[in-house]
Fold these 2 entries.
Entry 1:
Amino acid sequence: MSVKYTPVQWNLNKWVYDAVMLVGVVAFLWLFLFVSPELLSHEFPINPQVHNARAFGACAFVMLTVILCIGPLARIDERFLPLLYNRRHFGVMTTFVAITHASYILNWYFAFSKSDKFSALLFANTSYTQLAGFPFEAFGIFALICLAVLAATSHDFWMKFLTPPVWKRLHSLIYFAYAAVVAHVSLGILQDQQNHVFTVIFIGGALAVAGLHAYAAWLDWRGGDEVGAESNGWIEICSPEDIKNGFAKIKLLPNGERVAVFNQEGKLSAISNACAHQNGPLGEGRVIDCLVTCPWHGFQYDVTNGRSPAPFTETVPTYNLRLTDGVIQVDPKANPPGTFVEPVPIPGWQEVPA
Amino acid sequence: MSNDDKPFFVGYLDVPGPLRRFLLLACVAVIGIFVATGFLIGSTQDEPPASGFRFDYGRQTVTGVIELTPYPLLRVTQGNDLIKPGKTLMLTGQGKFGVDARAMGLEGQLAEVSGIILQRGTIDMMQLAGGRRGLKMIEGDAPAMETEPLGRWKVAGEICDGKCLNGAMRPGRGLAHKACAALCLVGDVPPVFVSTQLIEGSDFMLITGPDGTRLPKAAYDYIGQFITAEGDLERRGDMLIFKIDTDTLEVTDE
Amino acid sequence: MDQAELILLFAKIWGGVGALVALAFLSFGIDRLDEDAKGAYVFRPLIVPGILLIWPLVLWRWYILADGKDEWAKRYKPKRNSHNLFALIMPVLIIGIIAAGLSVRQTWPVNLAPVQLTEPGQ
């Protein structure tokens, strides 16, 4: 939640998150870089540059695989949501690890020639018409550019500036980057490696990402939010009894927007389901201290006017609503963000004692 | 929709009690994944073949006759303890540079070469020192050298660059190394064909195009793949030269 | 090799224009567009790499915001369906790519022996 932008907004959970991530990455690199040469004890060891490149490349792959599993896991089981919370730091770290991999390769395989190494990277292998022997470096370059774009646009400023839908769309590049990484490995080291431990880990990781995404998409498709029925230009949501105190009911509107109708102490209010920050699903959040709290990053809003509490300035659109014959109805035309709408009391509402 | 009383995580607040155990497990799992994969991938890399620069032998200086195939070879006439007369050495420069330009005009001449040995089993290549220290013409009559034709052959194996194959890079062959090998060949490092089985006692051959030309660019697409190839074979000293016919290159099915 | 140098030249020009856009945007554009950026300077260097990479998008958004053409409703319409589409395309791609990679993988043809086709001099 921004008042004035700062480079990074820290809190305890972010520190813990980054610490766990760093311990994992440092352990990986330490084992790979310093422990494995002893265990391998090759008489003529792998060149340090290649060994290092492999360490950072494999590390970036594992990081990317873990990162990409978090999203679908959180959709399958809400308890994984905290792993989503600071995923951006994880992603930025991955970009740096990937850049380290690329620079080892560039300064080894593409150095020492009469050509500029960046130029050599692009022209050394031009067998673009064949699968085996394809310049798999191209996939790595594509993935690295994607990672760089994502890391460079990870600050909250970009989200607000580009708008969350555009930002999310830009960051969907990660799916293509991952597919490119899979191609980079499949047509590269996978063709040469004789010991198949790496093959198994690589295919296992990639299939985990593929399977989790397919499963989560299927769940979403099966149990996605329903389109509300229309009656006289208003959209029917549900009966007031269907919404527990402090929770919401989400309905899809004919124009594709999602509305979240909240019950706060027996009074109904309707706001956009999309958080102003990253379009997180507000209707899946909770009312904490009279404020709706987004399940993704904890941005908060007053349900009656869609405004974040001062000093914060985020706003979401509100919707006019009414009760007709015991059914909540919402006007599908959203009010401008931050517009106050008088809450509709539920007749005869009594808080059910816990 | 979460219409129940499941614990709800808010980033800037304390983690709710029931979630802590789960998240602790998740943290352990994430670290566990990194530890396990780092250890397993790192410690199961393939062993590179016994090959490499022999800086431990020190700089070697020998004399012989330069032959241009067009890739320059040295037919050793006056050797030392390590490199005996009768030996044939492939020559390369530092980095991804051959010594074609430096050897030009020395065909059939007596020359002294000096540099570091690259060894892969037998000694077949020398990386020359810079300038005249590495390669210079010397006075004296060059003896006539024999070239023994061995007929036309069909061989199976892989096109590599001779320098990396001989251990300048470990690993120095295969598809992950293809671009590097191509870059070496563009820089005039001698190309080499590694055979699946011994041919006339050797498991590799220097390769050239037909009629004393360089390896044609068409062959570059096959670098690092397992292929069969046909061409004329000849022997110069203890070195086999394979004049590859690029029209016959074929990727093996296996 | 010429194409490679052309690509590198393109990358340099792209980055150069991006640097100019970054300079202009961070020195006077950003303050007018974003309340939260006013008086906040420490975070601005963090924005530079992003502008270098996607400056056409920055110019487009700058134009939209400065011209008052921003439609607020669009901010609250997440593209969830396209997200699901990508999430389904990716698994298909992954499986296809791995299968293709494994299908062209070769084993060293150790049983293929060299064959002499003709004797010397024939």
Entry 2:
Amino acid sequence: MDRPLTEWILSESLPIGLKRYEALGGYEAARKALAEMEPKAVTQTVIDSGLRGRGGAGFSTGMKWSFVPLGPEVPRPKYLICNADEMEPGTFKDRYLLEGNPHQLIEGMILGAYAIESEVAYIFLRAEYHRSHQVLTEALAEARAAGYLGKNIFGSQHSLEIHLHSSAGRYICGEETALLNALEGRRAVPRAKPPFPPVVGLFGKPTIVNNVETLYNIAPILQHGPEWFQKRSLTEDAGTKLYGVSGRVRKPGLWELPMGTPLREIIEEHAGGMCEGYQFRGVIPGGASTDFLVSEHLDLPLDFESVAKAGSRLGTGTMIVLDDRTCPVGMVHNLQKFFAHESCGWCTPCRDGIPWIEKILEAIDQGKGRLDDIDLLHRHVKHLGPGRTFCAFAPGAMEPLQSALKYFEDDFRRHIEEGRCPYHE
Amino acid sequence: MATLHIDGKTYEADPSKNLLEAALSAGLDLPYFCWHPALGSVGACRQCAVRQYRDENDKNGQIVMACMVPVTDGARISIADPEATEFRSSVVEWLMTNHPHDCPVCDEGGECHLQDMTVMTGHCSRSFRFKKRTFENQYLGPFLNHEMNRCIQCYRCVRFYNDYAGGHDLGAFASHNHVYFGRHEEGVLESEFSGNLAEVCPTGVFTDKTLKGHYSRKWDMQSAPSICNHCSVGCNTIASSRYGAVRRILNRYHHDINGYFLCDRGRYGYEHGNHPDRPSRPRLRSTKQSGLEPETTEVLAAIGSFLNEARGIAAIGSPRASLESNYALQALAGREAFSIGIAEASSAVLDALVAALREAPGGPASVRDIEHSDAVFVLGEDPSNTAPRIALALRQSVRQVSIKHAAAHRIPRWHDRAVRDLAQGRKGPLHSAWPAQTRLDEISKSAFCESPNAIAKLGFAVAQCIGEDSSSSSSADSPLQKQAKAIAADLLEAEQPLVVTGTALESEAIIDAARAVVSALAKAGKSTVRLAGIAAEANSIGAHLLQGQALESIVAKVMNGECDTLIVAENDLYRRLPHATVDALLDKLSKLIVIDCIPSSLTRHADAFLPAATIAESDGSLINCEGRGQRFFQALSPKENLHATWDWVGRIQVECQRSDTNPWPDLDTILAKMAADCPELAGIREAAPGAGFRIHNQKIPRSPRRFSGRTSILAHESVHEPKPPEDKDAAMSFSMEGSALQPPAALVSHYWSPGWNSAQALNKFQEEVGGPNRGGPPGLRLFPGGQNGRPHGSPSTESAATPDQLLAIPLYQVFGSDELSNHSAAVRERSEPLAFSLSAKTADRLGLADGDSLSLRIGEQKLTATVRLDPVMSENLIGIPVGLSDTPVTYLPLPAQANVCE
């Protein structure tokens, strides 16, 4: 099996049901693990596999699970949450999985919940994912009817209920602690860390929050083993990865490829290269909150380590390509407008700094910029960095801006000096 | 203690604190907004950034928020680090992108934390060139003004109002840079602690609306340390004045009492002194017809002759009057002919309370002790309405369990968000016994809503369960027994159990029951048990210690002809005795002399009237419900016709030739005389430094050093600036002249420190941030505890009430039940009209629905009001709000049987 995440997906408009999923070997891993493995062994298998969180931060999934206290004495209930609040601009990978093969998520969640001895799980779904909601609702009903959810799953002592919750729709809910607050019915504002959710999470109880794609990897890892999983990759970072491309390419889309597939291969082969009359200028590799990569990075293998070394982040692995006829200032302005609007309003630098950036970029884009605006933008990049804001939102927002200032500085200057956007006739 | 290195200097720091607290406690200036010493840290504003180094070899370090980092031994930080400094300046610059530049017309200007922090960070020139966002403001009631454009989103308001004070109707709405703090719709803020927002808000979003009505800048106000006299808790306040009138009340930090917060009755009740109908001139009935206003000397002379011609003199003081005023009256009339002005029944209950306080292990609990209790039994009190600051402390007590739980997770208590995330509203046990619904019910584990007798019975049952250690319940237990066992178990399990009781239900049995619970707990080995008492009025305890006669015996003296001349101070007898009794008394009297600061039913009948100074206009002492003697001082030298009651009485002594000169020309003299006559009160002299106190030979200024326009205040009358009034009573001057050094806590009249113009300058007046007042919290506790002087009580036998008889019990309203604050327009606006509370069942039986009108006969009195259904009240009880001003009947001897009138 080369494409464990998507191989069984027929078409995103026709999800595979329980019967077909089982016929293909679905739920075998969960059935076996619950019968034969200790929860700790499941976690160890995931640690051994080298699986890193696919939500963007790339933290070891197994390690995260291992932080949850186990045993009869610990606070209950514990929670497993699937973060399906896919709102990163340019990102549509989780949706593809949810709408194509919902049972693989349920199986992954059964395994994850078993590993951390959790009896209650939530799927926190992006507000606008109506189709996903429908597909998941049906799949959860099927699983419940089959006895795969509820009490004594597969005849084991383990019980699990999965609740599907549609978000009220804020980008910040993708931040795991803001998600917890939202789920508790509070303002969707991130929480202070420490304490971390595996110890103090939803309703104050130990909680694991995993991304959709991460959880899709669990059943295959348990089924085929850690070594098999590591072999799916071209580099150190294990497994396959869903890569997506949008922008002015011939065939925008989404592909499951070995982790570490080079950027050039993705853009030129899978996405069919740039559209007629357009040149590649740059790319934000993993959603709105990653640094631009440019031509010199085209041979970069896209995995967590390599992209980080190049000064960006793999993020969600779903990229937006910038071409030579689109204004980079306009593009960054568009991104900052999104961030300014989605800031939760909790901490000062993010709440009041990003709107200022947005206004400056708007002014520059409209030809009303001033030369010292560039210094102001640099100052914001510096002061909205990690550790200075309450959560990673603002530092993430600064990534495309700081790299745009680095790679496209001339564009900024031309806007200001010419008093107009040079990309508009 | 941990060692902390800040910018190369070494400091001792408490490892239970965070770096911000440590830096401030070390006297360093580090700006902040969202952190508040009582509310803890949440890391929202990012203003307190410093650079922290791993060790001495770490040259890079990293920027951290000081409020979110615990003090660790050997920690190295830099406040002066250029990048941290630039970042802090940027934070203010960001806030200023939306904050309007309206300081000159903003009520906060001159005492604005945002102004202070702006200067402190050095931000001064503006790069932002775009439009600011604007909001619509809301009407929030008579106490607060709302100006949302000034908001810097520190989230302190909602954290205080909702998280700390348990409010429900203030929220943070919307997101990004449009976060809005207000109500879901315009309307009166419900919480009785809303006024604190004016001090909690670091800028001018929430400001004191009553101050706005007669605005003056902080630096232009003359202030003095005062004591709140609107309930028995004795919160410390700062009363500020300008142009001869009190302008506002601010919280004055007292580590063991009010801490950082006041209730709205205390904050806004001051305007009784500004009431348009306030009698401010001496009056004589004899000259009333002529329409001429008599001179003060004339009135005093008349009073002198009244007293000289009298067959017998009696004096009635008041539990709302100062110790000195009560003592002066006692000295005038003699012990046998003096009463503190409360009826015998109330006096007996007060006596029981004082006995309980004397006996309380470790002395009566302070408000701070209440906050730190981890299991509470409130027996026969409704603190939300009778002693709101105690109710606020009880709201903190139920959080102790979550703070301990957090500590077990190594989350320090200052880490407010994390403590709350973990606790998820988990609450420690608070058991309440009160006949009707209370605002504390929502945080109570159990609420026992029965008659006063049943409440006493529950108390004794709890004591018995503790004594017998029979906390395991059995099926044979009555419901009361079961509840008693549950309460006993919680109290026994606690580290610091607390019993709160008081005089609200006029029941000695309840107080004896509370004593029994406390002594049972002490016997059971709970040496940490505390007792808190709540009395009816600001000086109930103090007045009681003067050992006056019951009011009835004074009435008897008049009725039997022993006395024909009565002097009554600060007491409306129509609120103390049945109307008919007072009417008969007045008929029988030859002369009535009244001294008061508010118009009352009694002042109308006075043959001679002398206008008393309000608490903010006078000096004196009060003893609060904790038995703490506290001193208040004049915030202004009032108009010549206004004097403290004790001062008037001294002048009267001269007039009636009992004394050649005023026997107590100043406060220290009367204090000394009182100490000689009442040894138990001798300690009260130490509640504050005497008038002779000086710092480097200088008095303490009442006005800030930047007080302006002194020469112009009276310029419309005369260009010659008069000499500021001399103050013979206090070590303070009526001007900005005097020592610039920090005075003892009892004499602090305003919080100011270089760079700190806002109330947050308070940090510099504490031993450590949030810690004791420098030099110790002021006041003197008179009851050390453990004095056993009253026999053990037992539950009184239930009076056999027939099923269709109603027992009327007194209910209290935070806005409405206090006589003085009822004369403050803002407080009055918040008070509710008279309504009877009863259960739906009782209403059903009487054929009544919510809102119907009902007439009751209680004793001789008939009372009509609308019916309000109380969801928890038990059958056959009817609650009647007491103390309201707008009722035809101002006195009812409750609890009492009530009969429904057809």
